[in-house]
Amino acid sequence: MRPTHVRHWLIAALCATGLLSGCSDEPSSSDAGTSDRVATIAGGPTAKPSPSPETGAMLRIDMTEEDRDRVYDAYWACLESHGVKMVSKAGSEKVDMPDNVPVPKVPEQENKKNRSGYAACKDKEPYLDPLLDKARNPNYPDQTRAWMKCMNNRGIEVSGNWDDEFFSFGKRAPGIDSKKYLEIYRECEMQSYRW
User: How many helices (H) and strands (E) in the chain?
Assistant: First the structure.
């Protein structure tokens, strides 16, 4: 992942695994995509920006975790086939695989020692939806505030400023386990961030 896109996914992964300890007044996700204009929290419509093209495989905001896993698995398989040193995907739910099913592997290091291997797989490299890039999405401040409000309203304490590199996560309401946390996170994200 590119560094400017890491924050949301790192937070989601850490919170879902319990390493870090709803919703806004915006229309429901079923209303998303019905117009080229969106309303910000302040209520003023803004023009829909044109996302710039990327090289690689976009991790769209509406993808399931299984879809994302397939994108990453394809990228990692490509890297391995081009000589990038790999290690078993430790700590993953996928490690407990049935017999005769290979354990997924990930690059040993992100420093790209094998530059030609990474270059050969550039068209498969995952990158996050431009909606989550504060430099490319002019609605990002309002949408991030809406996401935080949604999380808090749904029982997951989140605090910080919209442009913080990391947010502070507090208590979760009773009954919100890792699975429920990810569900709430994804619902709030899809409701809050859209062109």
Answer: 5, 8
Q: Tell me the pLDDT tens digit for each residue of 95-152.
A: 444 454 456 678 887 666 888 999 999 999 999 899 888 888 999 999 999 999 999 9
CB-based contact 172:43 (threshold 8 Å): no
Query: Are the C-beta atoms of residues 43 and 31 closer than 8 Å to each other?
Result: no
Angstrom distance (rounded) from CA 7 to CA 78: 25
Going by the DSSP 8-state scheme, the letter that residue 110 receives in this structure is: S
Paired tokens of 122? 């550039």
Joined tokens for residue 5: 């896109």
- Cβ within 8 Å of residue 129, ≥6 positions away: 58, 59, 60, 61, 193
pTM over 0.70: no
Domain boundaries, the chain: 1-55+127-195, 56-124
CB 172 within 8 A of CB 10: no
pLDDT single digits (tens) 19-63: 443 333 333 333 333 333 343 344 444 444 444 457 899 999 888
User: What are the tokens at 21?
Assistant: 């300890």
**147, β-bridge pairs:** none
d(CA 58, CA 40): 24
pLDDT of residue 147: 95
